[in-house]
Every structure is written in structure tokens, then in C-alpha cells.
Specification:
By secondary structure, this protein is of the alpha/beta class. The protein has 2 domains: 183 residues, Spore Coat Polysaccharide Biosynthesis Protein SpsA, Chain A (Alpha-Beta Complex), CATH 3.90.550.10; 179 residues, Serine Threonine Protein Phosphatase 5, Tetratricopeptide repeat. Helices cover 49% and strands 16% of the residues. An 8-stranded mixed sheet has the order 3-2-1-4-7-6-10-5. Helix 12 packs antiparallel against helix 13.
Length: 381
Amino acid sequence: MSFLDTYGLKCFQQEKERNGEMITISLCMIVKNEEETLARCLDTINDIVDEINIVDTGSSDRTKEIAGQYTDRVFDFTWINDFAAARTESFKYATKDYILYLDADDVILEEDRVKLKELKETLDPSVDSVSMYYNAGTDEFGNVTLKFRRNRLVKREKNYQWRGDCHQYLDVHGKIINSDIAVTHKKIRHAVGRTISIYDQKIARGDIFTARDYFYYGNELRENGHYEKAIESYEKNISFKEGWVEDKIFACIFQADCYRYLGDMQNELSSLFRSFQFSAPRAEACSRIGYNFQRRREYKTAAYWYESAVQQVPDHERWSFIYLTYYTWYPHLQLCVCYYNLKDFQKAYEHNEQAGKYRPEDKRVLHNKKLLEGILGKQEK
């Protein structure tokens, strides 16, 4: 951007401020026992938002004390095993034009802070919601492993409602724009079993499960090692005529994971191919199919599926899960193994180099590099 462009944008922003046209933002959060992460989160956002509302659902540590260092708008809400109810309560306290919500273990990285400030200064107030990426996982090398979109900045006057007592979502409609801003999740520990207990209580009450409930219940069961029950829950999601097709795609893929954990390679493969009923093959499925054949030592077939994975480019407008690992270093690293076993050492080396672009200090990549350079060096002599 030239000096004149920068100067013009700055004048435009100052004019909007003078005319009161720049949007204002209320940050709304629900917290409980977040003394380890809350300040880290608020330090990345407090100078951007115009108001901070924090609803505490029963902390027994210093969470409320820390919150009080950033805002006097700290409120109590009795926890009723319903995340949607708690988030709805936090939204009630918002007084600004738009509401931004975060969890205590989320942060806004510097490059995204810059983008968010620019968005605030330039957003057309006719927009009802701005979606942002949620970088839900990163590896030890800083690569994003899981991302998806969420309606993250929403117009307060629309009174959008939270749905679902766990794995809740905002029921948003109207004028929605997709931004390239990301909220990054930096989890310190996993709350094992907390969400699964909410689903168990729903079952005990006799609640009717939706297709979405069965999908997320399956996820909780899988993550807690209840693979047989997870398979059943995913099957119920898939069998529903209703429900988001993206959930059905990943129900097939995650069901395959459960079969893999149980050592059932044939049903694992069948579940992966079943996902093709709902969409064209995706790297998340192709990489897993490759691994299935690799474990059978059918390296040529495995390489075919890994090659299919690396040729794909994730759709960044997609709202459902994008597991970037399966589009990037992982299939390249496995192709190195496959081509090594097929005695094509040059291709093995090339794919290992591609994997190394994402994980330069990975011990496997370094081992492969040394091994293959030795083999190729001898072949040249």
C-alpha cells in the first residue's frame, strides 16, 4: 500500500470516528476456573473492544479477581449444565453495536489483531455477522492442524440465539461476510468427560437427539475411548435424512477412526469410502485410506491415495472441519515411506523434503533425509 493509500485510509477512519460511524464491540465471555489463561486472552483483545463482559459460572480460583483487573462488568451465573444458556446470559450484558465472543483459552495473534482493528474501522454497519476462522489446534512447529469457520462478530440488535446445551452454535441469518481473521485456541488441558456427562444426562432425561447431537456425542465418545458406542452414534447421524451433510462426511471418517482403533481394517476402509456418498474425496479421507493400504503393505495403492491427498487444496470458505495436516506434511511423509519401500528413492527424498517444509526439525524427517541422501549418494557413484 502506497503512502497516499495509507494516508487516505487513515483520514477515512478518522472521519468515521468523528461521525460516530465506526462500530463498537462488546466482548462477552463465560468462564470458570480460568486463572491460568484468562489474562493471556484478555491481553490480546482488551485494547480493541469497547466493553468487556465476563460471566463466571462458579469459579473457586482467582478467575474473578483477574477479570476485575480488566473490567468492572463481571457477573455471576449458576451453572446448569447448559453452555448455550450461559453464553446467552453473557450476551444479555452487551451494550455495543456488535458482540465478539471468546473462550478464556483463546488468543488473538498479532497478525489477526491488525486485521481485527482494520475490520472494526471499516466494517459496513449493514453487516449482521462476520465469520472468522477458529484455529482449534496447532502442532509443536506452529502449523495449524484444525480450522473451521464460526460466526464470531454479530450484531447485537439481531438478538441471535445460542442453540445446543453443549457444542453450541449461534443461530445466525442475514448479511454474513467471511473474513480471514483467526481466533487461535491455546488449550492448556482437556476437560475430560465434562461434555460427555451432559450428553449422558440428556439420555437419562429422555431428550430427543438430533442428527447434530448424535454427531457430537459420537465425537465425545471417540475422544474418551468408547469406540463401539461412538460407532453407533455416528451411524445414527448418518442414517438421519436431516442434518448437515458436512457432519455426515466426518461421521464416516471418524467412524473409520474408531474401527481402526478396534483393529477392524475392513470396516475402517468401508467407512472411509462411504464418505464419498456425501462429497468428492477429501484429503482427510484419502490420507486415511492411504494409511489403511500402507498397513497392508500395499504401497503402490497407498501411494495413489496419498498422492490424491497432496493434490488437493482445502476450501477456505468451507465452514466445517479442515484438518490441514492431511493436506500438507502428513501425506508427503507417508509417501516418502511408500516410495522407499517401492525402491523409488528419488521420489521418497522429494516427498520427505516437502514434509520438511512444514516440520523442519521433525526427527522422522531428519532421519529420512540422512538415510536417503546416503542411498542416493551411493547410486550416483
